[in-house]
Amino acid sequence: MPMYEEPVVGAFYEDREEDGRTFEVTAFDENDGTIEIQYSDGTTDEIDLDDWYGMDLEQLESDEEEEEEDVDDSDAADEDDTDPDDDEEPDEDEE
Q1: What pairs with residue 12 in β-bridges?
Q2: With 80 as the cut, is the pLDDT of residue 76 above it?
C-alpha cells in the first residue's frame, strides 16, 4: 500500500517491502523534494519524495513518545498532590 502522507521528521517508519526494515526521518526538504533517513543500524540514506509516495510504509509509534507521555502524566499527578501550605513557610521574624 503506497504512502499517502508526507514524511514527519523524527518519526519512525517500517518499510514493508524491505523485510520490515525500520528507519527514522531525520530531515525533509520540501523545496528539493528529498528526505534524509537513518536506519536502526546507523546507516543513512536519501529518498526522493516521488519515491516516498510509492513505498509501502507504516509509521510506527516510537518508544520515546510513549515514555514522554508517561513522564508528563506523572509530572501532572505530582503537581496535583502538592500541599499549598508547603509553599508557605512561616517567617520567624514576624513574631
Answers
A1: 24, 60
A2: no
- Specify whether the CB–CB gap between 61 and 69 falls below 8 A: no
The residue written with cell numbers 536502526 in the block is 40
- Residue 6 CA, chain-centre distance (Å), reads 15
Q: What is the pTM of this model?
A: 0.63
What is the Rg, in whole angstroms, of the alpha carbon atoms belonging to the chain?
Answer: 23
Q: What is the DSSP letter of 60?
A: E
3-state secondary structure 2-58: CCCCCCCCCCEEEEHHHCCEEEEEEEEECCCCEEEEEECCCCEEEEEHHHHHHCCEE
Per-residue pLDDT of 34-68, as tens digits, reads: 999 999 899 999 999 999 999 999 999 865 544 44
Rounded CA separation 45/23 (Å): 10
DSSP character at residue 80 = H
